[in-house]
Design goal:
The chain is mainly alpha-helical. Among the domains are: about 60 residues; about 140 residues, no CATH class. Helix content is about 45%, strand content about 5%. It has 20 helices and 14 strands. It has a three-stranded antiparallel beta sheet. Strand 7 and strand 8 form a beta hairpin. The chain starts with a helix and ends in an 11-residue tail after the last helix. GO terms for molecular function: alpha,alpha-trehalase activity. It catalyses: alpha,alpha-trehalose + H2O = alpha-D-glucose + beta-D-glucose. Keywords: Glycosidase, Hydrolase, Signal. It comes from Gossypium barbadense. This is Trehalase.
């Protein structure tokens, strides 16, 4: 039944897109004030901050002591803020304060390890294995286009990883949440893997794409249920399900998850339950801290969005690292702004990259809050289109019209604010320094960031753009000439900075969005490029898996079969979104019986 629903819903979506075009010609233009958002205003003063819990503040102290005790070698600060308490906080703090300390404030290894063992359970003990209710070793109709037995065997092993990554919160988290930084989610989750033992927001979209290829529809719905729980509880979908992530979100893809699940299952009740939270999330992303107004060359105002974390201290999960990075700043206000930039960059999902730096050789010039990112605004455009489509599905026609108007206006912004005709790419737009104000900023060509990043091509993911064959062919040619296409996939940038969201790393989400956009177009050249990128990505995942026995978080696109590196933590395995994208690519493109899958 599911394949029939998939084809039927794709046809409905095509008809809906056609109606978008027709309605965009007849709907009146939106006024300056966006009726779907909170009033936009200047972010004055220090900006909003969500306070840390007493437990979190204490665990940061433990983290700092651990660094003094053990030193930097193999030190992972996240480990210490993930530790669950065995007993109440006050007793634990009292014992910690009584630890004998040297003059420099450090604690002996023996005393510190005895304290940790007595008062804490192990990091990761607050999640337990959850058997997925819909997992079968080889689902009926699984990857019908994969004819090569070697590739099919590997795909089934990747499919089986969903069992390995399935978790639920422990009973202690549910009954004693005050002892944990892990949040008490109601349903099982798929975790990314390794040090990431909690669910993450934008990772979940590609996990769900893989689950849908694996026919695990109930597991996919449970993930959305958990994300909606966070949205209802905290007012936004959190970066991840930990107390230290409550101050920020991540790229907003919840509506895309709901759309993809509906597209496969036809579950109208699921859409009805999801629609109000999706509208709530849309309002959050169009609130005063995230939304700014840019006036284009034709004096038309555009409401566009940025990342902006509600935090101005070291990130608890990386507190010791952040404090060291901020040590060059002389006053507290500069440090607080830098800490906000760090957290806002983490909200982008691209933590870290030269994309966010005013000086690519100086990490402390992070300026994420002064950038209107192409991909964030594409995700919000997709949110507008998804909500319009889902509302129409359940008969909420007034909501559909409101969101079509919003998408109509945002689409125009992509032409006048982000598009660069000479480069054939959409470029991030940098705001003027110190210009966080109620008045619209005037668009300037020199404020476009003309450096090449994979995000410059993400708008192709949206059908409004990939349905324009002339545009697609221009952008495809630009991609081919950009320097990003490498032996094993698309590089994230052209700058080898040592940051993980830069060259030579390639990431599953970026491969998927660009490939899916190219493959949906009517351009034969674009579809050929899409297939070639997908095959390179599948090969490097396969060869790395055979060499290491694991799927990896990121890959080195210069070398087939090599995983990536860089950044502030060691390379991770598991790995949720990599698994999902491989399965989605194999579902779409298949693998012929006689085609080799080595790196030659």
């Amino acid at each position: 039944m599911a394949p029939f629903l998939y084809r039927t819903n794709r046809k409905r979506h095509f008809l809906f897109l056609f109606s978008v075009f027709i309605l965009s010609q007849s709907l009146p233009p939106m006024a300056l004030a966006n009726p779907l958002s909170a009033p936009s205003s200047c972010t004055k003063g220090p900006g909003p901050v969500i306070p840390a819990t007493p437990l979190l503040s204490f665990l940061v102290r433990v983290q700092e002591t651990a660094l003094q005790t053990y030193g930097k070698s193999n030190f992972d600060p996240k480990h210490y803020v993930d530790l669950p308490l065995k007993s109440n906080l006050s007793t634990t703090v009292e014992a910690f304060d009584k630890l004998p300390k040297t003059e420099d404030g450090s604690v002996s290894v023996k005393d510190f390890e005895a304290f940790i063992g007595k008062y804490f359970n192990d990091a990761g003990d607050d999640v337990v294995y959850a058997e997925p209710v819909d997992f079968v070793p080889e689902p009926h109709g699984f990857l019908p286009k994969v004819e090569n037995p070697e590739v099919r065997g590997w795909a089934l092993e990747v499919h089986a990883l969903w069992k390995n990554l399935s978790r639920k919160v422990s009973s202690s988290v549910l009954h004693h949440p005050e002892l944990h930084t892990l949040l008490p989610l109601p349903r099982p989750v798929i975790i990314p893997g390794s040090r990431f033992t909690e669910v993450y927001y934008w990772d979940s979209y590609w996990v769900i794409r893989g689950l849908l290829a694996s026919k695990m529809y109930e597991t996919a719905k449970a993930i959305v249920t958990n994300l909606i729980f966070m949205l209802d509880t905290y007012g936004h979908v959190l970066n991840g399900a930990r107390a230290y992530y409550t101050n920020r979100s991540q790229p907003p893809l919840l509506s895309a998850m709901v759309y993809e699940i509906y597209n496969r299952t036809g579950d109208v009740e699921f859409v009805k339950k999801s629609l109000p939270p999706l509208i709530k999330e849309y309002r959050y992303w169009n609130s005063d801290i995230h939304e700014l107004i840019i006036r284009d060359a034709e004096q038309c105002n555009h409401f566009l969005n940025r990342y902006y974390a509600m935090w101005n201290k070291p990130r608890p999960e990386s507190s010791t690292i952040d404090e060291e990075l901020a040590s060059k700043f002389l006053n507290d206000s500069e440090k607080q702004q830098f800490y906000r930039e760090l957290a806002s960059t983490a909200e982008s999902g691209w933590d870290f990259s030269t994309r966010w730096m005013r000086n690519s050789s100086d990490f402390t010039t992070l300026s994420t809050t002064t950038i209107l990112p192409v991909d964030l605004n594409i995700f919000i455009l997709r949110m507008e289109l998804d909500i319009a489509f889902l509302a129409k599905t359940v008969g909420e026609n007034a909501i559909t019209e409101d969101f079509l108007r919003a998408s109509q206006k945002r689409r125009k912004a992509f032409s006048s604010i982000f598009w660069n005709e000479n480069m054939g790419q959409w470029l991030d737009y940098w705001l003027n320094n110190g210009a966080d104000c109620e008045e619209p900023q005037t668009w300037k060509a020199e404020n476009q960031n003309q450096k090449v990043f994979a995000s410059n091509f993400v708008p192709l993911w949206i059908d409004l753009f990939n349905s324009d064959i002339h545009l697609v062919e221009k952008v495809t040619k630009s991609l081919q000439n950009s320097g990003l296409l490498c032996a094993a996939g698309i590089a994230t940038s052209l700058t080898n900075s040592g940051q993980q969201w830069d060259f030579p790393n390639g990431w599953a989400p970026l491969q998927h969005m660009i490939v899916e956009g190219l493959s949906k177009s009517a351009s034969m050249e674009a579809r050929t490029v899409a297939k070639d990128i997908a095959e390179r990505w599948i090969k490097t995942n396969y060869v790395a898996y055979k060499k290491t026995g694991a799927m990896h978080e990121k890959y080195d696109v210069e070398k087939c079969g090599e995983f990536g590196g860089g950044g502030e933590y060691t390379p991770q395995t598991g790995f949720g979104w990599s698994n999902g994208v491989v399965l989605a690519f194999l579902e779409e493109f298949g693998w012929p019986k006689d085609k080799k899958i080595d790196c030659d």
